[in-house]
Amino acid sequence: MPLTEEQRSVVESDASILKVNAVAGSGKTTTLLEFAAHHPQFKILYLAYNKSVVVEMREKAKARGLGNLTVYTIHALAYRHANGHSYELENDLSEWRLLDQYVPLSFRGTDLGILYAWLLKDIVNFYLNAELTRLDAELLVSYEAATLPTEELRTLLTLRGDEMIALVKNILADMKNRKSPAVHDFYLKMFQFGKVYLPYDVILVDEAQDTSGVMLSIIKRQEHAKRIFVGDSYQQIYAFRHAVNSLDKVAGENLWLSQTFRFGDGLARQISQRVNQGYKLLGETPEFKMRGMDMDTRFGNRAYKGKYPMAVIARSNLSLFDTVLGHLFGKAARTMHFEGGYPGYSFMNARVAGLLYLKEEKRDKINDPLVKKFKSFEDAKRFANDTQNHSLSTMVDLVTRYGGKLFDFDQKIKKRLVDKPEAELIFTTTHKAKGQEYDIVEMVKNDFATRSDISKQLNSDREDVSLARLKEEINVYYVAATRGKKSVTLAEF
Hints:
Layout: H1 5-12, E1 17-22, H2 28-38, E2 44-48, H3 51-64, E3 69-73, H4 74-81, E4 89-90, H5 95-101, H6 105-108, H7 112-129, H8 137-147, H9 151-176, E5 182-183, H10 184-194, E6 202-205, E7 211-212, H11 213-220, E8 226-231, E9 243-244, H12 246-249, E10 253-257, E11 259-264, H13 265-281, E12 291-293, E13 298-299, E14 310-314, H14 317-328, E15 336-338, H15 350-359, H16 369-372, H17 377-386, H18 390-402, H19 405-416, E16 425-429, H20 430-433, E17 438-443, H21 451-459, H22 467-481, E18 484-489
Parallel strand pairs: 1-8, 1-10, 2-3, 2-6, 4-5, 6-8, 11-12, 13-18, 14-16, 14-17, 15-16, 17-18
Antiparallel strand pairs: 7-9
Keywords: ATP-binding, Helicase, Hydrolase, Isomerase, Nucleotide-binding
Pfam families: UvrD-helicase (PF00580), UvrD_C (PF13361)
GO molecular function, one term: ATP binding
């Protein structure tokens, strides 16, 4: 397929820094491959955060014979340059280990102990992902501004902030000195401190709307190279992981890939209208533009009903579970698949079981280290609320709503599981559906933010209303609405 004028503009641009806003389904991978093919004289580095995206790009580059294109995740690149192999690595800091090793003794036996440990963990993770390098009061100011912590956490930060900075230093020093396991973001931070020169003429940054501050800092330093940031500002949905939108953070030439090849123009215009309506509520000038193909993608009242295979997309795990149960006990038995794998949805695991046993006061059956630290189910619930821990909150809500029935539901679901190509129903949250596309999509009703919800938040007297979080709710809607090719049952907006 020949390049569009917009794609050709990207491929032929001579800007030293180029920012490309690429709408869902606009062929950005094809465009970047064409850029590499068009410039065989350049040594090009392609970077992305997601490993699956990198694997796909590597395969396509190999098929095209693009020997000038090197493909890495940012973590793989950092692992290579910052001696990641020399550390004992773990995937996640555990609150219970921080509680036992770092939280002051006066806190360990109190209700605040686990909250203190969680806050330490979150500050460490924030720092490792942030562009800033100093460990001082500025870190806490930046942390509060970015995360909008609850009153309980703000109180801890106010009263124990200096102490926490010292403990964060100790935690990171122990990682550096191999006295404790390091998380993968640690060697990424070491990569930032190393001020490494990357020997490439061009650096392509994919998914630029969801980069970390530390990744952006590393790329900005490579002033010898042409840098191209490609992403979709309206798909920024990972702020909870401390991601930043590079397209807003760097200065450079702006280009659009506004043509989607995924669905028809009618749906494209409908989605564009809704996105712009949402952003206008937030006081921004509507500027989102997306054009579709000359094809009939069904939506609204014309969307397919009861036609399979179908992808069901929810905003939240809890609503997705409720929807799964509706299909599980419906008249027709359907085969099921969960995008990314069923275990990743945490409908039933050791932590959920532990919370259930905690609620039933069967402490001897609890195996999860974190749950063991809570004195009661209400303590766990309070902790989930205080820390805005959405994953734990979902587990608490599942146990509250369904109790011991969860074991039976889990077994019934597992009996329906098949590989994705054989599934009649594919279940996913918006975050797991990102980067995917399906023929027929149904967005779960009453689970996505509407204009009315946004207006109510904006007009409320609450002091914790965040424009950034409301913007992310609009983006979540957009990502879900743009996954379908032939038919999309849109949620209300």
